[in-house]
Amino acid sequence: MIFLFIPIFLFALNLSAILSHPKSYVRDFYLTEFMRETNSSILAFKAYTSLYKVKLFKHTKLLAKFPEFQNIYRCVNVKKEYLRDVNIACILNNGLSLRTIATLNKSDLEYLYKNLPPSKQKSAVWAFLNNNFSKIFKDRDLGYYFILDYPNQKIDQKIKDLSIFEDKYFNLFVKSAVIHHLKKIQISLDQLNYKKFNDRVKWWLFLNALTLNEEKKAFNILYSIKYKTSKIYFWLWKLSGKKGFLNDLVSDDRVNFYTLYGYETVHKKFKNIKTNIVYNSVKKPLFNQTNPWDVLKFFNALKYQNPFTLAKKLDSNKSIALKAIALDKAYHYKYNFFITPPVYKDTNTSFRAFVYAIIRQESRFIPASVSSSYALGAMQLMPFLVRSYKGDVFKQFTYKQNISIGVKQLKYLFKQLKNPLMVAYAYNAGIGFVKRRVLPNFKYHGKYEPFLSMELIPYDESREYGKKVLANFVIYSHIFGDENITLHKILKK
Question: In CATH, what number is assigned to the domain containing residue 438?
């Protein structure tokens, strides 16, 4: 039959229409979905070459459903099953991870060592082949390769000379050693003269000293940080117990995890919370917050237009989320905008407040949000999660389906983890991450706990995300009438 030779499209996406929009993560989301659905390898490749930011693993995996592109995906994601079938250049281009190398048998390691040209990959293979990691930190590239990609106890060793790593990336080196509890490296780092480093390195050297129970040194490092944020004042207060640092902390009107904890400590009400910001003076807002292309235009306009003028053109319940962001910039973040659009109702005030806390952190209530990882809608749901709940990825730009699915996911996480902080971490990075990487190392009891454990969460985004969601949760609980919810209570286990 003739129709068997014609590409069959069972979806409404039109490649030409997608490409008519400017390059952005929104366009990349639609191009990715097009690649997922099309059965034309030519059109899939055209979509791939039109991406604004290629996600090599994700997009080559989508191409790999076509036989002619399978070798490309294998090169990007070299597995031991087909290690000897790919070009050796795939290993040199980081297609083979250190974690995979660590699982290879002796024969495969010998094959790699024989065929790889002199490189950090070849040196890494030698280390695993001989179970000898003594040379790692004698070479900068090899040292960073291991500390960032394979921070395993096998590489933990005393380092006499750290000077070759003391560059603009050194904070990543220190952070990896501290977060992954590489004690011998930590002791080596503790011998450094902290005064010569920038604030980012000093922060991780402070945590390094604190985890080694060097409290006095930790305080001195922290005090030497030039730009003192609420986080720094919080820890200076915790380490010293001095009221002056607590006063510095609560003098900050911008509400966050640290200032909120300080407010609670001195029984001070948090300031400048704004919930009602709309007077509905505009019938047709300048931008439609349920249209992802319009949301892009809004953020572009926010860069160049007067934010007060922009906010006036968005004075409608239909664009309340966009107006809140414009006002935030207009007032130079002096006020704390915690809007309460009627997006979710629940007789359980605590759970409702948590839903609002998540939405505020995920999208600031913008229903047509698309992130760089293609998380969608107000609750920033990943497309695979939407599909797992039998949802439509293209119906995530209004509140209804998006929040319905997001609430189901939150209820599942609460059933599994109970604790709001752990649920926040899991919502951001997955329940597997929490069970493997967070819970085994998290402490509630101890001189500086659970705060120290919170600072040592492995992923940067998740680390800050948990703090922000908890602060949002407390504030929305109070807005909705439950003042019994406090950080002090949440963090006491």
Answer: 1.10.530.10
pLDDT score recorded for residue 12? 60
Domain count, the chain: 3
The answer to whether residues 426 and 485 belong to one domain is yes
270 in a structural domain: no
| pLDDT above 50: residue 156 | yes
In this predicted structure, what is the pLDDT of residue 282? 97
459 and 381 part of one domain:
yes
Q: Round the average pLDDT of the chain to a whole number and report it.
A: 95
Q: Which of 195, 221, 241 is the last residue before a domain boundary?
A: 241
Answer yes or no: are the C-beta atoms of 47 and 31 closer than 8 Å.
yes
Do 136 and 213 fall into the same domain?
Answer: yes
pLDDT single digits (tens) 131-155: 999 999 999 999 999 999 999 999 9
In-domain check, residue 91: no
> pLDDT band at 1, cuts 50/70/90?
very low
The answer to whether residue 408 sits within a structural domain is: yes
Q: Is 248 domain-assigned? A: no
Taking only the tens place, the pLDDT of each residue in 160-179 is: 999 999 999 999 999 999 99
Decide if pLDDT at 67 tops 50. yes
Instruction: Say whether both 461 and 398 belong to one domain.
Output: yes
Q: Domain span at residue 482?
A: 349-490
